[in-house]
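Q: What structure does this chain adopt?
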Amino acid sequence: MTGVSPYIDTVSASPILNARSLPRLGTAVKALRLDRGLSQAELARAAGVSRQWVVSLERGRTAGAELGRVMAVLDALDASLAIRDDREHAPQ
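A:
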């Protein structure tokens, strides 16, 4: 046993898409949607949100986006949200 949890191993092996801003989050969601072969309407239906909301999210125009909706979209894409302390990765 190495002392590393299976969750950490799974996260480190998965591709990470940078989403430090709403436009980058939108770009990441769109890339995942296209990778899964889903239309905006199909993703919206699976996440329980409107197609227009998905369009706005992908364009980075969901200022004040409800986190629950974002999480529902990520769940529908079999994706997750991870928070990284960027101070650990900043150049010294």
